[in-house]
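tool_call predict_complex ligand=2-acetamido-2-deoxy-beta-D-glucopyranose
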Amino acid sequence: MTVFFGAVGPRRMVYFAICMVLVVSLYLALDKRLLLTRLNQLSIEVERRIQWWNWQDTPEEISCRAAHNPVISKDPIPNIVHFILLAGEEKEVDMSYAHFLAIKAAVVRMNAAEIKVHTYGLNTANQWWKEIEKHVTLVHVDRNEVQAAPGLSVSSMALAHQADLLRLAILAREGGIYMDTDVYTFKPFTDLLNNPRDAVMAHEGGNRYGLCNAVIMARPGSTFISKWQDSYKTFNPQVWNEHSVRKPKKLQIQFPDLVCPLSPTVFFWPTWAKAHVLYMHEPITPDEAASLRANMTAFGGAMYENQLAFHAVAAHDYLSTLSPKVIQERDTRFNILVSCHDSVRTFARVGQGRDGPGSTTPHHILQTLTT
Ligand SMILES: *[C@@H]1O[C@H](CO)[C@@H](O)[C@H](O)[C@H]1NC(C)=O
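tool_result ok
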């Protein structure tokens, strides 16, 4: 030891220690968000960690959710809603009642300039398609034109990953609001359209481990979308949500000026965690229904103050058994939310093709539906 200290000198040791402290504190100061994201994306006890949340939006989330004045040098994000419905090769996709409800919610509630359904092929004889077709534009996509990650042909990828790439291609070209067919909107996204940043997404999970690609808003040609497309160079089909949820979060940390992150309640709360799925889709008591309806009355049809839509993720077992009758007769949070703002189940009834007695549908909603 004496020899060592003699060689380096105690003064140098002190300098070295000071340097280390400086480097570590610089790293923490500059990259705290990166460090936090890395911790949040660890795949340990994910389900428990995403459910935890103190309901405090960050200052950045608050400003991203707030209405903005038009940006002088930029057009607003186009209020065009894009859905994608894909089926495997040589197959036509059949619109389910759950898909229909999601698209109908956009038709009725988003005040959109246009609603597009992009598909490789759709069964146009389907009853739900017939109900909705005059309100939307059907866009046929050639699967060979969808850009795949290098070394991968699109048709070799899972359909969900094909859809991941297709939505980015659509937004890069046209801009607008992309939504999965299990996203149910409550009101127009007006506040978000003039955002100074060219892309808007929302956090998934109370711990904000990701930005989920089930809803993406962007101006055409957004740099964020093109960086995201480039990231598919490292695409690994085994890591299911890497490029759809975790990657955009990493890009947001790296390039904070390119995308505005919203609070988890805006699109993605409750989450895919089992307890949350039960919370949304299992029957509730009359008291619970009344307290939900009180929120919906106060928040323009939404469950939370700043909520614009709900992603009914991990709920296939429930969505696949939905019918107009189930929506009307079974009080679950989901069923109440997709019905009309008032407690009358008009929204679902329109899907049934008749207008029952006692309907108190606001006039403008009926008009939207019949034009
Ligand atoms: C009502 O909204 C508040 C504020 O957004 C939220 O904390 C509460 O959980 C909501 N209640 C229900 C029943 O959804």
